[in-house]
Amino acid sequence: MSVDVFVYVQHLLGIGHLTRASLLAKAMDKKGLKVIFVTGGRPIPNMNMGKIEVLQLPPLHAADDSFKILMDVNGQIVDDAWKDKRKETLLQAFKTTNPKVLLLEMFPFGRRQMRFELDPLVNLAKEKGVPIVTSVRDILTTHKTPGKGEWIVDRVLEDIDQVLVHGDSSFIPLEDSFPLAKKIAHKITYTGYVVETPPPHTLDTTSDELTNNPRHGVLVSAGGGAVARPLAEAVLKAKEISKLKDVPWRLLLGNNLPDHDFNEIANRAPQGLIVERNRPDFQKLLKKSQLSISQAGYNTILEILTTSTPAIVVPFSADTQSEQTTRAEKLESYGALRVISEKDLSPVSLAQSIDASLDRPFNKINLELNGAENAAAIIQRITQKNKTHE
């Protein structure tokens, strides 16, 4: 068996990294590349990868938003023996599939917790002469650990052939969040933002469909991670004190939120508020909604912009996680959405922001949104240069 691209992705808390990597894999598949998609996080229900081969490694996840403790699917902290077994599964898959390109998600810019298997994987790829490409979002989390930035630069220079930045350099250049990017500028390519863009007619806000059925109701998405509770709690009370209390509301909660938390929230939902797990038709729901309320993850933000939906976002900002806040505040400065910080989130502040959004129109912003297709074209060119690995 031989494949063109070996994709490695590890989601630890939310599903943003997995979603972005899956869109890249699908774009490569559309170009005729044979892809194996290797994922190491908890399995996600309703994840449709089409005919792409998926290898699910023994799942692990972060115990909390510090990302320091890794746990298995049963909630047990993984030990060295567990890690060694998983590492061997990963390396054997690489040897068996004999790929032309190794595509890593985040490493070495992130996922240092996974070095127990990523260092051996990188070494194996180098031994076989397989080009290594890393995929990163537009903003990197600010790191305070002394020397970490320099370590990243050294690893990129030593191990990585190309860095694909899934953003628009005219909007947010990588050096804004990673000042040392200039030292690896010769390896960086901006692809544009990665988002699943529906056919144009489905997003045309002047279409007969939307003219006859104008946007109505509020869609709340608390993300795919386990940090949904604060936003959900604010929404339960904000609905009844906002000017939109009489329109239908829908609250989507991530699959990683424990069932007892989900059921408790659903049981307290006021009349007119539907509580559901995340749905695959999120974009379709977005384009029918008059207002979106959500966290500010990469994928959610882009789906909001793609559907031109008025939006209020509450960026996840635990510990040093500044990525969502940085991007959201930049968009707010363009008038593209409204931001409430986690520390300021309350039923009253949310209701006030909802009311204010009804009186002030949002601006559209033009960004490069063909990131998946552009990245796939780059990978395709690399595979064509590496014909020796059949």
Give a verbal description of the structure:
With 390 residues, this protein is an alpha/beta fold. The strands form three sheets. The chain has a seven-stranded parallel beta sheet, with helices on both faces. A six-stranded parallel beta sheet has the order 12-11-10-13-14-15, sandwiched between helices. It has a two-stranded antiparallel sheet with strand order 4-5. The termini are close together. The protein is globular, with a radius of gyration of 21 Å. It has helices at 16-30, 80-97, 115-127, 148-159, 208-212, 229-241, 259-267, 282-288, 298-307, 323-333, 347-359, 371-385; strands at 5-9, 35-39, 53-56, 60-62, 70-72, 101-105, 132-137, 162-166, 188-190, 218-221, 249-253, 273-277, 291-294, 311-313, 338-339. Helices cover 36% and strands 16% of the residues. Strand 11 (249-253), helix 7 (259-267) and strand 12 form a beta-alpha-beta unit. The chain folds into two domains: 5-196 and 370-385, Glycogen Phosphorylase B (Rossmann fold, 3-Layer(aba) Sandwich); 200-359, Rossmann fold (3-Layer(aba) Sandwich), CATH 3.40.50. Helix 1 (16-30) packs across helix 12 and helix 2 packs parallel to helix 3 (115-127).
